[in-house]
Design goal:
Length: 273
């Protein structure tokens, strides 16, 4: 096997540095004693501590806002992930196990990938238009947490379905035939055979959906109400007024949580393959 040119390795290192050095800078300033400016004033954990204790914060109102946004973000992520996981799993099973014609299967596969490749701003604008119409039917579509859950579910379903579908393809259709040969009902087969085997893929898809909801800004920005601010929205508003070490600390924690969830999801996906 021929060795790669050293320039390839250098390019890879520079690319990774370009991606992660900004986040490293944010992490460094999150432990900087100096509140304003770019000068280094010493190492401290007080900005992280102030996120959990308003009494330790130089701006208690901001800390209380962050804590309220954290509760909203977690509620939104958990609710949307649960709904998207159920619907995405059912969609994957239907796509993979139903005897579709070739044209119908190709059409459905393209529709499944559409939310993945559609820009968030387009999806968010479409949701605003749809909600403005549906608002005439039900108050559920008023801007706020319920509308945000629906908005997040619309793009999470595709990601869950794709992950679960990949797991289904690795299992093959032999299990279905073996269950029929043993006179198992389809409900029994799904409960006792299919779902346990799909569990790693379902969990991986759910973790990916949770991560996407946790980090989402565009759809949340378009569907949020005055009392349903999420952490990305708080960070955006704070950046416009001026970045403080508290915001650096909050951004670092969100980034670490995202990295952990993505790594766990990747590990589960590889294990299920």
């Amino acid at each position: 096997m021929s060795r790669l040119h050293p320039a390839v390795g250098v390019t890879a290192v520079l690319t990774l540095a370009f991606l992660y050095l900004p986040m490293l800078a944010v992490a460094v300033f999150s432990v900087n004693e100096t509140r304003y400016g770019m000068s280094w004033g010493g190492f401290t954990w007080k900005w992280y501590q102030s996120l959990f204790n308003p009494a330790l914060s130089p701006d208690p109102k901001l800390t209380e806002t962050i804590q309220a946004a954290f509760v909203t973000t977690m509620a939104l992520a958990v609710a949307s992930t649960l709904v998207a996981t159920v619907l995405g799993t059912l969609l994957a099973i239907a796509l993979e196990r139903y005897p579709w014609t070739r044209r119908a299967r190709a059409l459905l596969d393209n529709l499944l990938y559409l939310p993945v490749v559609t820009p968030d701003i387009i999806l968010a604008a479409a949701l605003v238009v749809a909600f403005s119409v549906l608002r005439q039917v039900s108050s559920l579509f008023e801007l706020g947490l319920p509308a945000m859950v629906i908005g997040h579910v619309t793009f999470q379903i595709a990601f869950v379905a794709l992950v679960v579908q990949s797991r289904l393809k690795s299992l093959g259709a032999d299990l279905d035939e073996a269950a029929r040969d043993l006179y198992a009902s389809y409900g029994y087969f799904v409960r006792r055979v299919l779902l346990p085997l799909l569990a790693p893929g379902i969990v991986a898809g759910a973790m990916l959906a949770f991560t996407l909801s946790l980090d989402d800004f565009v759809i949340s920005f378009f569907t949020a109400g005055p009392d349903s601010q999420t952490l990305p929205l708080i960070i955006y508003g704070s950046v416009r007024r001026g970045v403080t070490p508290q915001i650096h600390a909050l951004s670092t924690l969100i980034f670490l949580a995202t990295v952990i969830l993505v790594l766990l999801s990747e590990r589960l996906t590889r294990r299920s393959a």
